[in-house]
């Protein structure tokens, strides 16, 4: 049942109030701030929280009580004052915020206004039909017994190895009613990895290959060769296969077939099918690639199974170069990053869903994939989610419209744990994952999230608790700290506080690889972070950013009426 919770904020100020306009992202000017709002009476029995601001930046929890009264002493040094409201409940709450500060018409006109920026191409992963299939996995699996496995072993012939130039039909749906004719354009056999010998097969739909293929952009052999080189090649710690399996372990193994009779046997091969996904012939947007677990099943169970451990990659977008074509052009490089993203999903299906019998929440699964892209960005020479050149470990410069964070800034109040398969969902889980790995153990944290038996946010908490810095942390702690880290991201290495921004790269070494985590300052992106100056809804398990004012001095009294499950964190900087 949705509750209407009233949040009342009273500011009584002795000293100087200098309103120079509120900084931040989206517009709240449709409901103007009352120039002189009445002081809201408070219960005299409510204890007062007293906060004295003495540092250049300071973070104080005002608690989670239903009623909070706080006196904030700012002194004579002007400070910007913010609140982060973190709703720990599983239902959204409404808030009403008023204060008695005098806001001049000039100042009000300067309060948060929208920033217009150039929209980036739409890049989607995990189409709805793939997610729908994934939600039904539990009904498709039945535990194998010895008799079933023996009968299956006798009945199923071993699949022949692919050979370059071979032709075959690939199914594009789960029912075997949609298909494409394709040719094997690259086979790299018996490559030594830390997980044994592996083979990569790259197939291309015939209608997408060669000059004059009939599509808006056509795949060539050189493109195929360069793509193969990024995913699997000789020597260790030099390709996507090595970097991603180093974190999450193997993508498929004999334990799958032994456990569930419907699954295909291990053959140590991975297939990439380059095809025009959904037949949209779009070189500049749409679904760029995905992993679909239907192909891990035998055809007798899923009619549209290709009986391979495989990815689907959009041929038209991959073939879209800038001046000619190079693997480092925007769309080819997005494809390389997408393979790292989807490889996490592939491994997750085996390690989490099959071996641990755990159907992890979608938002966590996607967070792992998004954060994998963050970790391998410098290795694949990509701007990554930060949208900053891979050689630059700094937080970049103002006005950045690249990467995931402009969209996050526009949507930073979304519920973290709700998943609606929108681009904004990818941006929010990316931002949360980036915060986690920069504060609680780097690449090892991602490994530990995958390799525990929890399905929901407890899988994150369990992994965080295993880190040196995260002992005793709860999900509520992580949610509020995340909100704090966002607002403090323009400060390099804030002391004893969660941070996105150290000023440069921070290394994280796990097992056989070292990964670089670049700095992030959300105030360097266009649009800027959304920071509200009026009331609004605090989403379930989400944060709401509110700006009390700019250049404040003196004593400020804050009174809040909350729902008992929303923490108010005060930030002065």
Helical content stands at 25-40%
Computed Rg: 26 Å
Q: Give the overall silhouette.
A: elongated
The total count of strands amounts to 19
Strand content: 15-25%
Question: Mean pLDDT, as a whole number?
Answer: 86
Instruction: Report how far apart the termini are.
Output: 38 Å
Q: How would a textbook summarize the main sheet?
A: 7 strands, mixed
Tally the helices.
15
Strand line-up of the largest beta sheet: 7-12-13-11-10-9-8
Structural class: alpha+beta
Give the uncertain stretches in residue-range form.
Answer: 1-41, 99-120, 144-157
Short structural description:
The chain is α+β, with helices and mostly antiparallel strands. It contains 15 helices and 19 strands.
Strand-helix topology:
Blueprint lengths: L11 E3 L33 E5 L5 E6 L3 E7 L5 E9 L5 E2 L10 H5 L13 E3 L2 H7 L2 H4 L5 H10 L11 E5 L7 E15 L2 E10 L15 H11 L8 H9 L5 H6 L9 E7 L10 E6 L18 E5 H4 L11 H25 L7 H15 L28 H6 L12 H17 L3 H8 L6 H10 L8 H13 L18 E5 L2 E5 L19 E2 L4 E10 L2 E7 L4 E7 L1
Parallel strand pairs: 2-4, 7-12, 10-11, 11-13
Antiparallel strand pairs: 1-18, 3-19, 4-18, 5-17, 5-19, 6-16, 8-9, 9-10, 12-13, 14-15
Helix pairs in contact: 6-9, 9-10, 10-12, 10-13, 13-14
């Amino acid at each position: 049942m949705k509750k209407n919770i009233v949040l009342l904020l009273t500011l009584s100020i002795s000293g100087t109030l200098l309103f120079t306009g509120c900084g931040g992202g989206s517009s709240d000017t449709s409901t103007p701030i009352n120039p002189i709002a009445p002081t809201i009476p408070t219960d005299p029995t409510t204890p007062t929280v007293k906060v004295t601001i003495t540092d250049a930046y300071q973070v104080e929890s005002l608690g989670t009580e239903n009623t909070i009264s706080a006196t904030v002493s700012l002194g004579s040094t002007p400070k910007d004052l913010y609140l982060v409201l973190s709703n720990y409940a599983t239902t959204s709450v409404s808030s009403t915020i008023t204060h008695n500060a005098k806001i001049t018409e000039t100042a009000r006109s300067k309060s948060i206004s929208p920033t217009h920026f150039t929209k980036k191409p739409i890049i989607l992963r995990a189409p709805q039909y793939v997610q729908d299939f994934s939600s039904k996995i539990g009904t498709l699996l039945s535990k194998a017994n010895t008799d079933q496995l023996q009968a299956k072993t006798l009945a199923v012939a071993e699949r022949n190895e692919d050979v370059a130039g071979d032709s075959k039909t690939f199914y594009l749906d789960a029912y075997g009613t949609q298909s494409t004719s394709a040719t094997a354009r690259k086979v790299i056999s018996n490559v030594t990895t830390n997980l044994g010998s592996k083979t990569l097969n790259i197939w291309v739909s015939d209608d997408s290959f060669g000059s004059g293929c009939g599509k808006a952009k056509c795949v060539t052999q050189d493109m195929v060769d360069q793509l193969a080189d990024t995913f699997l090649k000789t020597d260790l710690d030099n390709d996507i296969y090595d970097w991603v399996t180093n974190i999450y372990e193997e993508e498929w193994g004999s334990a799958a077939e032994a456990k569930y009779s419907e699954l295909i046997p291990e053959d140590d091969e991975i297939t990439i099918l380059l095809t025009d996904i959904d037949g949209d012939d779009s070189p500049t947007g749409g679904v760029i690639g995905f992993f679909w677990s239907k192909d891990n099943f035998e055809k007798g169970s899923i009619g549209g199974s290709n009986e391979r451990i495989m990815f689907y990659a959009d041929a038209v977008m991959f073939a879209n170069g800038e001046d000619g074509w190079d693997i480092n052009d925007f769309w080819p490089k997005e494809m390389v990053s997408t393979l790292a993203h989807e490889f996490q999903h592939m491994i997750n299906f085996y390690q989490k869903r099959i071996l641990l019998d755990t159907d992890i929440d979608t938002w966590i699964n996607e967070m792992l994939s998004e954060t994998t892209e963050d970790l391998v960005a410098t290795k694949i020479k990509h701007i990554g989610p930060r949208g900053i050149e891979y050689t630059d470990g700094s937080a970049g410069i103002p006005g950045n419209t690249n990467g995931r964070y402009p969209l996050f800034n526009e949507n930073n109040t979304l519920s973290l744990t709700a998943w609606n398969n929108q681009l904004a969902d990818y941006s929010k889980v990316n931002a949360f994952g980036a915060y986690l790995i920069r504060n609680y153990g780097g690449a090892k944290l991602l490994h530990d999230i995958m390799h525990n038996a929890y399905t929901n946010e407890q899988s994150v908490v369990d992994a965080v608790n295993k880190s040196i810095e995260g002992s005793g942390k709860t999900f509520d702690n992580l949610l509020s700290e995340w909100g704090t880290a966002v607002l403090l991201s323009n400060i390099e290495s804030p002391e004893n506080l969660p941070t996105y921004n150290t000023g440069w790269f921070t290394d994280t070494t796990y097992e056989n690889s070292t990964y670089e985590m670049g700095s992030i300052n959300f105030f360097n992106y266009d649009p800027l972070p959304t920071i509200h100056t009026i009331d609004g809804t605090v989403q379930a398990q989400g944060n709401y950013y509110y700006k009390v004012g700019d250049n404040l001095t003196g004593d400020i009294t804050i009174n809040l009426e909350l729902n008992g499950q929303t923490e108010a964190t005060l930030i002065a900087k």
